[in-house]
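Example record

The entry below shows one chain as it appears in the dataset: sequence first, then structure tokens.
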Amino acid sequence: MDFPATRLRRLRSTAAMRSLVRETHLPPGALIYPLFLCEGEGVRREVSSMPGVFNLSIDEAVKEAEACAALGLGGLLLFGIPDEKDEVGSGAYAAGGIVQRGLRAIKAIRAAESLVVIADVCLCEYTSHGHCGVVARDGDHYEIENDSSVALLAKTAASLAEAGADIVAPSDMMDGRIAAIRQALDEAGKPSTPILSYASKFASAFYGPFREAAGSAPQFGDRRTYQMDGANLREAMREIAQDIAEGADMLLMKPAMPYLDVIREARNRFDLPMGAYQVSGEYAMLNAAFERGWLEPERAMLESLLSIRRAGADFIVTYFAKDAAALL
């Protein structure tokens, strides 16, 4: 039997050979670990739908930051869980807010020198109604106001930058927020603070466990009037182009695995540094399979992350970050 001169299996013969010719790599420095900061001291409260993920008081978050630095992770993404909420999410932009205090504590430790500390910019964890912006009501009808929400988001971004955030990351999906945030940062004397825009954030069922972790589920309605329709790839490219035109320095795609085609299309079109968020539902789904013995944890975890890198993400926000880094 005649064989072709080229046998692709020749380059798969050993682990060393496979490593040598591997096209996509997953270094620990490309992984970002989310932290959920809450009030109190010595608090380490596990999120029931996300095994191994915790609500952390600031002192515990500092310990996590030190562990992440020791593992060589690229950075942290901070979310806040305030004790009190109101209609306009004032805790998001308070100088003494939970994330602002967390930023100061984390940036004060030596381990933070090797970590990029990113602050999420949104109102949903801080509003009593759970929406990402200001709610205007007229009887039974309600609307999430765009422009008044943008003003508060810009104020939040400036407050977080002043508290020490290396990067601010707006995740709200209001129109025009990037331009407003850029202006607010410049006016606050923070012209060098980059904006990592959740430029393509879809209204997804995969956010469910996050809403438990952050206490951010909407009290009425849903977020489909401002987060993107999952069917729309071309619209996602328009969203990204608009954010770049307004001054975004980096892009974050969310969710990751159900939207790998969107990540790839964005990578083909745009040259900005781009990350992807392997969201809570992706993490919870895989962990449920691990607990039942249906998937091999280490292989499935790394394969899921590698697929996101292969699609074009330069870095990945993932709750697997510490576990993956320990293996890598």
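Notes for this example: The CA atoms of residues 33 and 319 lie 6 Å apart. The longest strand covers residues 31-38.
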